[in-house]
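To close the chapter, one final illustration. This time we ask the reader to focus less on the individual chains and more on the assembly as a whole: which components sit near each other, and how the overall shape emerges from the parts.
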Amino acid sequence: MKSIKLLTLTSRWYLLIFLALTLFFFAAFFVSIQREVRHSTNEILHNRKAHILEKFGKSDGTLPSENFGYSDFQMTLLTGNPSRADRYIDTLIFETVDQHLDEFRKLNSIVQVNGKSYLLEIIIAKLETHEIVESVAKSLIVVFIIMTAIFYFSLRYFSRKLWAPFYNTLQQLNAFEVDQSKELELTPGRIEEFVALDKSIKDLTERTQKTFINQKQFIENASHEMQTPLAITQSKLELLIGDPNLTQHQSEIVQTLINSTQRLARLNKTLLLLSKIENQQFLEKENVNLKVLVTEILSYFEEQQENLKIKVTREESNEVSVVANRVLVDLLLTNLIKNAFFHNQNNGNVHIKLSDNRFSISNTSSIEAIPAEKIFQRFFKQSTNKDSWGLGLAIVKKICDLNQWGISYSKNEGLHSFVVVFSEKN
Amino acid sequence: MKILIVEDEIDLLTSLIAFSEKENYHTDTAKTYSEASERISLYNYDCILLDINLPDGNGLQLLEHLKEINKSDGVIIISARHSLDDKIKGLNLGADDYLTKPFHFSELNARIQAVIRRKKFDAPNIVSFSDVTIDLNSHSVRVRENLINLTKKEFDILQHLVANKNRVVSKTSLAEYIWGDHVDNAASFDFLFVHLKNLKKKLKQSQASIEIKNIYGVGYQIIPL
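The assembled structure is written out below.
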């Protein structure tokens, strides 16, 4: 569902309510004004009747007027002696001047003058209904527009002020990273809801951070605790291989035990390394000459290079160096170079390019392109090599994150490439 | 050669004693801080293997104690803590080396020998075995008087095997000595095999009276002919 701003949504509802209220007021005004008009008209008719009767009583008994054409009343002599209460009614009378039916109010009254009964009818022009409707509507529309405008602008103004702490919190949350010990700086102001929200968020993030730190601590402690039993196992096995009474068969068993212990020890060492990087235990920075470092690292892979007949090409414009922790830079480049050699193929290529602030390495490989979001995950591995855990690239990513360097992976025309962009600061 | 092993983990301690005796070192042991501090006050050692985490104190304090009583015994810290801080602290306090558990005996042995060599003033940095002489400073190897030409890795292998002449050096530890963390096990054994083949060939050509023996595919030992 498409999301909508809270402000827009509330404004819509308020506008609907405004509209409904306006219509209601319109109806109410209309009814009350109409009633008021009728009431005052009736009063006028009543008074007029009194005047007419007074005049008529003093006259000689002839009817003052024949019909409404010349006067506002007419009197008709009635036979018998009927009696009835006064009746006020609405009536339409055709006005010959503008060929139009006009609204009138009429009083029907049976009066006794000089012992005779007459029907007295008095009419009076009335304020017409559509005129009332028009004027009420006009004023209400003006009120509606003014109110809406004031409402809209004040809402915008206030909401910007009111929601400021909310947007601040949102911004902080977006920038929040669980592996950084930085606390959130929330300024909830004095709005109760935001104070409560910020408190909850603060509690939540603190708890998360705490859990994360505990988790890190746990990995580190567990790894450390494993070192001593590993040392014991390894030492006993090494004592065993020196035993001259060992048979060929026993030796083979010992060899597999040594290999497994070794793998476990290395995995442990790698996990420790990862948590040490996360705990920022590599702080000292120095100027590291990358060209020299790459040459040194490559020397460790000579055998693999010869074995697979890999062609190594290097492209270095000048002496490239970076200010960083030497151990970490070494680890970063070693892991990338190791990757390029060990996932390579017979008669493959490794191309290393060093320029101002970037290191790129690409290699041939039979491995398909790897989804970029997976490649840096811990324990994600594509090869069937049992000595690889899929931690090398996780370490690479960690080191880049720590130094705020960019790292990217791509596959093009059978070449897997990694590019590290050392930040501008260096 | 006198060695003190300070280690509270009994199983590891017995391994270390067996190792030390095989190298014909005179071996003393201490399982606690107080025991160790008493021993170093009473005797002089060529090398002390020091575990930092002791039940009644920190091994680093022992280094301070050594300094106070003006002793310059060689010290190798053996720690389960893979901590840079401890390493720097230890080395600053006068330790000669720092080894993290788990370690290979061949590696420990090489380091002990290096520490002992360093402690001997004006000793030439030369190791010899049978009729082969290895100059550790110039990285040269002579069979009797004749210089033989070895690659860096062949030199490392030969030197490491000679340093551990009393024991079988496992393939794993030899590979780790040469490549560190840079290669994976499976591949490194093949590479190691190639280097050893070349080394053996060169030794044979120069008629050296030593032989590198393959022990059931588990490891290698250098023996005089």
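The first strand of chain A starts at residue 73 and ends at 78. Chain A has three domains: 6-132, 193-278, 286-421. With these observations in hand, you are ready for the problems at the end of the chapter.
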